Amino acid sequence: MDMIEISEPKSPLFSEVKENFVVTNANSELHHFSVEGNVVKQISSTPDLNCSNITSIAWKSDHLVLGDADGNLSIWYLKGKVTKAESTHRGWIKKILFAPGRGNMKCLILFNDSVDIWDIKDVKLHSQLNYPRDIEAKIQDKDWAGSDRPILSLSDDPMLIADLKLKMFSSPLISPLNGASITTPSNVV
After folding, report:
1. Which residues form the WDR11 second beta-propeller domain (predicted)?
2. Would you say the C-alpha torsion 153, 156, 157, 159 has a positive or negative sign?
3. Alpha-carbon gap, residue 2 to 18, rounded angstroms
């Protein structure tokens, strides 16, 4: 009689998954950790990001973008452990969100009175929409409908899908304040 050894296959439920996370402290120091199984390792940290009170963080690929209460952006390149700082001159940054798509490093940045699109790879302002100068309703929230289509939620209830220049919208804006019609039949997306 032959003996056959039966081994149970390893369950995918028990495979160890590696997770990464970042935290900031009251001194605006940023710490990057990884967790694999029951092991937590500190990967790196920055001693000084030149930020005041950090209000928002977004992470994509090896770029980490932090916004603060003074309107400053700090970009941390995780692989190179290099940070860059840029002032937006806009005030408190409420939210930061990367656009979808591999290699697309555009960020939507929500302020109290406006929304900006920044190219994080080049650390450049791409476009902006200000309340009340450019739009009658206050911008409450933002998201991405696609890699080149930001969605804006406004205080008077409409949701707008815009182009990257924040000049063309999926539906007309009601009475823009700068006198020119932002949306006409020829530029409605």
Report:
1. 15-121
2. negative
3. 42
Per residue in 79-135, pLDDT tens?
Answer: 877 888 899 998 999 999 999 999 999 999 999 989 999 999 999 999 999 998 998
Q: Which domains does the chain have, with CATH numbers?
A: 53-69+89-181 (2.40.10.480)
Q: Do 111 and 133 contact (CB within 8 A), yes or no? A: no
- Amino acid letter, residue 91: G
148 neighbors 99 (Cβ within 8 angstroms) = yes
For CA atoms 78, 121, 100, 56, the dihedral sign is positive
Please tell me whether residue 13 adopts helix, strand or coil conformation.
helix
